[in-house]
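Researcher: We're teaching a course module on how sequence relates to structure. For the next exercise, students receive a sequence and then see the predicted structure as tokens, so they can try to spot secondary structure elements on their own. Here is the exercise chain.
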Amino acid sequence: MRHVTTHNGTLHFAGKIRIRTHTCHVAVVGSGAAGMAAALRLAERGVPDVMLLTEDLLAGTSRNTGSDKQTYYKLTLSGQEPDSVGRMAQTLFAGGSMDGDLARIEAALSAECFYWLAEKGVPFPRNAYGEAVGYKTDHDPLSRASSAGPLTSRLMVEHLQDALDATPVALFDRQQAVKLLTDGRTGAVRGVLCLSLDDPQIAFNLIMCPAVVWAVGGPALVYADVVYPGSQLGGTAPALEAGAAAVNLTEWQYGLASVAPRWNVSGSYQQVLPSYVSTDPDGGDPRHFLAEGILDRKERLGAIFRKGYQWPFDVRKLPGSSLVDLLVYRETALRGRRVFLDFRQNPDGLALDRAGLDAETADYLDRTHAWAPLPWQRLCKMNEPAYAFYLEHGVDLSRDRLEIRLSAQHHNGGLAVDAHWETTLPGLFAVGEVSGTHGVYRPGGSALNSGQIGALRAADAIARRLPGHGDAALDEASLLAQAADWLRDIPETEPAELESELLKGWNLAGERMSRLAGPLRDTTRLQEMLGGVCREIASSRRFLAIQALPGRALACRFRDMLLTQRFLLGAMCDYLDRGGVSRGSALYLEPGGRLPGNNVPDVFRARTGPDTLNDRVQRIRLETPGDLLSPLQIDWRPVHPLPQPDEAFEVVWQAWRKDMAQRGRGKHET
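Model: And here is the predicted structure for the students to work with:
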């Protein structure tokens, strides 16, 4: 990759603020696994002048997150158990509120993308016969999961970057995308306005292009308690502000994660049966609190074990393994205590023996040869890299307790996309977690697969379309005028204490969402919260007066946070108005509601019942693009049915040859 700098552009001014313009054919915003794949796929298809925009090449979720063995989900490619594109598509579709055409595409292209990554060097293991051996993950009826270890997504990014280094793709680092610019006549996206993060003075770069691939990851900034790394904030809001529709925003995945470092405590971390201990805020008064909610010890140990492969909080797993999540939440959010996994002692501080375990738990310890006196010793036997990870981050599980919280891990909803991952705004493609391709449930690891398939489909669509779009389609004067309008009325003087007020507002907004609109959603407070967020949006522009660059960057992010929260809360309120009930990873708390299972504490009474909306998709967008406080337009449509194609080979072959010929690739395909 070649590197672009601010000084490569043409200088303009919006008042006293500098804007430099740059032109390319495609701007890919985001340098995670999906963004890197999109840029590389475009380069492989011969698309010229591709620019990769990123805030920090070494930041983001893909490069800085993982689990005990981070999963990649794809078609079964080993063993004797039969699988097919249709069966995998049905698994994805059965998650609820997912479009069947997207499910079919994600299944059909999963093997191709998996092997493409393997060819780039991602070390997915194979057996002596060359089979990519799999294992079963959550919401997976077969053994479709694979892994390159605790850092699968990091390995994907590193090998994709190695491949990109040999291409002419241009890297424009240290750029924070703050606004999408559109064609005034067609509404098509034609540019990205970025705040330069490497300029000592406030300056912006305007990248003008006929196509944008939005690969900014999930909106981690909306919650305080998250598994996402600190460098991942997301960027859904600029697309929402531009008028893009979003779908299934109510649907998230939450689970138990360590606080420092932020990391999923799934899989082996649970299956070695650590002790769950809560303390007061100062670390005193330790309690084995799970015994309060799960009275039988064998049942309690089984719930901890199953938390390993049933890691996401799931209302269907109440009173089973997800009761552990509720008890952790009660200790932390409701009682103000801290919760730790203690690998130095067995649950309840008692010795572990086979007679005290259910058959599944005991058999697993047998098969993994993991019997040992203490949890940290069992972890070293079962999965030594999982133990080593924390050691590398300054936590010795043989000596230190590990603080955990119930945290946001993944957004299943996001920007609405079609079968080519193009949003409702022409020219804007959304790939990776920012795209809302999944519904209520999804198999573990399917997000990594979806990001790769979205990158492939978007690159194919752009490569077909670009010959009909030239630089003449870019109206520099109009795009500069939009940028100047967005920058207009920013105060030139900074009031005292403005930056500290911003930090306080940021923290309060995230904590409020985690406490009242995360995995546990207070139905009596959501509408009130929505009104409060709207009031904060109305006064948020004043923070752009902050003169120091880090503060100005955070001020832009704060507006993003508030707009995204407005959409999320609006979606939740509408969902309840339509008769929505607790489902997926969200329990809607309601006074006088029903307990979602035996032994569930009374404080968790919730709205429960049949899910009558899982065959529909909720869509939401701004009525007036650009106006952050304009009414939210919300509607529901039926899911696209799951296709059952049965074409004759000759018919498909003829259409394929015609398509290849139109793309100039047909000479060797006939």
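Model: If you want an answer key for the exercise: The first helix runs from residue 33 to 44. The chain has three domains: 2-251+412-483, 254-409, 490-612.
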